[in-house]
Write a structure and sequence with these properties.
Layout (H helix, E strand, L loop, with lengths): L1 H28 L6 E5 L5 E4 L3 E8 L2 E8 L1 E4 L4 E7 L2 E7 L11 E5 L5 E10 L2
Antiparallel strand pairs: 1-2, 1-9, 2-3, 3-4, 5-6, 6-7, 7-8, 8-9
């Protein structure tokens, strides 16, 4: 009877420690994306990336207007990709490394419904 209790106790602590390890790595892998401000090379498009939304900014008549849209996020090793549709065009935002932005690797690709694609390098910065 004592051996059975000890084996059950060891099994319980083994499962508990495995669950804690999985929870720790899962929390680090899905850490929240900080607010990231980006713009294309000549300022044609400016936007702010947050966890699940992207706010595109426009200057009209001396005031700033933003449209906030939901985006699908695919995490990569050090960065992410976000996909959203604006006015029928597919927007793909790729950030290779959130710790070190690089306008030669970070880009916005806009594809029209007919398949025409424009790619813009991005200059990004993050708060915090």
């Amino acid at each position: 009877m004592r051996v059975l209790e000890r084996d059950t106790l060891q099994l319980f602590f083994g499962i508990l420690s495995a669950l804690l390890i999985v929870a720790f790595f899962q929390n680090n892998a899905h850490a929240a994306i900080k607010q990231i401000d980006c713009q294309t090379a000549f300022g044609e498009k400016t936007f702010t990336i947050q966890e699940s939304t992207i706010a595109f900014h426009k200057e009209e008549s001396g005031r700033s207007i933003s449209s906030v849209l939901e985006a699908q996020t695919q995490r990569t090793y050090k960065g992410f990709r976000k996909v959203l549709y604006v006015n029928g065009n597919k927007h793909l935002i790729t950030i290779k490394n959130v710790e070190k932005f690089d306008n030669s690797e970070d880009y916005l690709a806009i594809t029209s419904p007919r398949g025409h694609k424009m790619t813009y390098p991005l200059s990004c910065s993050s708060e915090g």
